[in-house]
Amino acid sequence: MDTLNQTRVTEFVFLGLTDNRVLDILFFVAFSVIYLLTLLGNILIIVTVVFTTRLHVPMYFFLRNLSFIDICHSSVTVPKMLEGLLLERKTISFDSCIAQLFFLHLFACAEIFLLTIMAYDRYAAICIPLHYPRVMNVRVCVQLIFALWLGATVHSLVQTFLTICLPYCGPNIIDSYFCDVPPVIKLACTDTYLTGMLIVSNSGTISLTCFLALVTSYLVILVSLRKQSTEGCRKALSTCSAHFMVVALFFGPCIFIYTRPDTSFSIDKVVSVLYTVVTPLVNPLIYTLRNEEVKSAMKQLRQRQVFSVKSYS
Question: From start to end of the chain, where are the E strands?
Answer without folding.
Answer: 11-14, 90-93, 173-174
